[in-house]
Amino acid sequence: MNVNTLLQSVTLHEKAHPLHNKIVDIRISNGIIAAIKEQLTVEPTDTVVPLKGTSVSYGWFDPEVSFSQPGYEHKGMLVNDLNEAAQLGIASVGLMSDTLPHPDNGSALSFYKGFDRHPVSLHPFGSLTLKNKGEELAELYDLFDQGALAFYDYKRPLLEPNLMKLALQYSQNFGGRLAVFCQDPSLSKGGQIRESIANSTLGLKAIPDLSEELAVQQSISLLRYTGGKLHLSGISNRSSLTRIEHAKKEGLDLSCSVSVGLLYFDEERLQSFDSRYKTLPGLTDSATREVLVEAVQSGVIDYVTADHQNVSVEEKDIEFSEASFGSRTLSALFPALCAIYGADETVELLKRAYQVYELDRAEIKEHSRAHLSFFRPLEHTIIEKEAQTHLFHGISFSHRGIGIFANNELVLSSTP
Fold first, then answer.
1. Cα–Cα distance measured from residue 238 to residue 292, given in angstroms and rounded to the nearest whole number
2. In 3-state terms, what secondary structure has residue 114?
3. CA angle 226-124-247, nearest 5°?
4. What is the pTM of this model?
């Protein structure tokens, strides 16, 4: 006898559905949505889950998450990271390539097969070059064949142009997508913050916007020359956005992302030399931050990532110039976006990446698999035991993700 899950009195956020924004019941049988109605009769095989005051959308996807296993288990175990993601409402993650061994061949991705049954869907990136060194191409087809979402040397400066040209040409044979972090290595080397008038008094080596602009221009020129699929990770200035918008209008298969930290904070935070705000790319001025916010709304920026990194307190609770870039941010992704865009727009933003990576259709409908995120209005403050590792520590928000139903399993946080 099948046991069904009946999600009762939940507000449906699905624009394509006639019951969008209505309070509904959803019956799930063996992981498939069997029925969605304003009221369903409880059947003997139903396990009833009352969700009054809770909303549901298609499962959220953050494709650029840097957890630490394999290779850096002292910073966190993957199963714990995935459990936390599920309780935050994150149903799918793309795992970055900064692990050991480097995922530069298909066998290196076999580690993730052990997590196939976890409710959170894992989509690992493969390295673009051997050992992420930027010297020789990784085994791209082998990685693609083993399920690599894309090929990326995590936050390494742009590849030598001819190597990138070869990668774009070769990956077209099987439909692979490249991802690059746009910084010119000679202009960004040793930089600690973004170059600006406000930051000029800090006495720290700065990275000029020109570093990103040149790298974006080169990337687009190579894509135009070769064809293929290309993603630009961590876009952060106006000139880049202009070039990307024009390239998209040409019809190039180009996408880009921005971190939620750059949408929420600006460079004034750096005046205190608080290493929590040492990000890569660096925080921008307030006017540029507003331009980035608008570019997400217009679709020039395809999706927003938490840009989560499992940094340790030893890496962050030290002098600014010695501290590592990055921070733990996954718990702030949904609430921070709600503070900027509102909940309705945020749930749509957190589904966009499925289209970029040509995955699910990302909609809730009968006879489709149940891949769901739950959220509700909830006043809360992000508090971390190791405050220095979290970009949003001490920030209060009004919305929170509270769980998922995915891979035929329900996960709800214990938060009231």
1. 8
2. helix
3. 30
4. 0.96
- The answer on pLDDT for 416 being more than 60 is no
How many degrees, rounded to 5, is the angle at CA 326 between CA 135 and CA 116?
Answer: 75
Superfamily of domain 4-56+365-386+398-412: Urease, subunit C, domain 1 (2.30.40.10)
- Torsions phi, psi of 38, nearest 5? -65, -25
Among 184, 169, 185, smallest CA distance to 223 is for 169
Domain assignments of the chain as residue spans, ordered by start: 4-56+365-386+398-412, 59-356
CB distance 334 to 89 below 8 Å: yes
The backbone torsions φ and ψ at residue 321, rounded to the nearest 5 degrees and listed phi first, read -65, -20
Task: Answer for the pair 295, 303: CB distance below 8 angstroms, yes or no.
Answer: no
pLDDT single digits (tens) 173-224: 999 999 999 999 999 999 999 999 999 899 999 999 999 999 999 999 999 9
State residue 179 phi and psi, 5-degree precision: -130, 140
Q: How far is CA 120 from CA 69, 87, 310, 355, 360, in A?
A: 16, 10, 18, 18, 14
**Tokens representing residue 195 in the block:** 């170059």
Can you name the CATH fold of 59-356? Answer: TIM Barrel (3.20.20)
